[in-house]
Amino acid sequence: MLLESVDTYRYFQSDEPWNDQTMDSKSYPLRPDQLLAPALPTKIVAVGLNYQDHIKEMRQEDHKDPVLFLKPSSSLLNPEGKILYPPSSSRVDYEAELAVVLKNRLRNASPADALKAVWGYTCCNDVTARDLQKTDGQWTRAKGFDTFCPLGPWLVTDFVEGKQRITAKVNGELKQDSTIDKRIWNTAQLLSFVSQVMTLEPMDVLTTGTPSGIGPVKPGDMVEVEIEGIGALRNEVGKP
């Protein structure tokens, strides 16, 4: 999905775009370097092991509940931004994921109520230092480097989950190819589960897991995460 122009929004009475937005009649040319990550989260809550084929790929056991971890907001990266390969790692992987951005505070919510708190859906690349993940035994360092959470290219507010295709390509070569209905827990279930653990704030991000096909990248590679009905998130890998 490519856009050559973007409509602008004017905000009245509130600086919070999820509360009060009015479409302007004007359009302006859109360049990739104008796009920012479509969220300003207090936290990024990520879900691991949410596709059965990825669980087998990682040689993990099934879990009764979703596996949660956090990525810091400092890991956010804009569309077309450069993923920086940390010197402390010898293997950095891509992970294509569907992500959601919240518009309301969420605490102890049912799945139905949880969906009402979603502002929109976007693409995420849960970049991971795979060797450090194995070394540490927990995931904070491996998932938390600056630039390790590319997000975008935009937020789709009328997206309805179904059997949309999710893919990852490296230098144009297809690496991951699945559909979001193959997740073990859908977005409503995940949001409800997370809200029983921690309060989610407006603009917080939830990423919902990756399918099989993960693999390494190196400086100079171009990674493209695409979700049907949302668009394509493109980021080059570079040296810090």
Walk across the major sheet and give the strand order.
4-3-14-8-9-11-5
The appropriate CATH architecture of the largest domain is Alpha-Beta Complex
Number of alpha- plus pi-helical segments = 5
Low-confidence spans: 1-14
Number of domains: 2
CATH C-level label of the largest domain: Alpha Beta
Explain how this protein is built:
The protein has 2 domains: 1-30, no CATH class; 32-238, Fumarylacetoacetase-like, C-terminal domain (Fumarylacetoacetate hydrolase, domain 2), CATH 3.90.850. The strands form 4 sheets. Strands 4-3-14-8-9-11-5 form a 7-stranded mixed sheet. A 5-stranded mixed sheet has the order 6-17-16-12-13, with no helix packed on it. The protein has a 3-stranded antiparallel sheet with strand order 10-7-15. The two termini are 29 Å apart. By secondary structure, the protein is mainly beta. The chain has 5 helices and 17 strands. The protein has helices at 52-57, 111-116, 130-136, 140-144, 187-195; strands at 5-11, 21-29, 44-48, 67-71, 76-77, 82-84, 92-94, 96-102, 118-125, 128-129, 149-156, 165-170, 173-179, 205-207, 215-217, 222-227, 231-238. Residues 1-14 have low confidence and may be disordered.
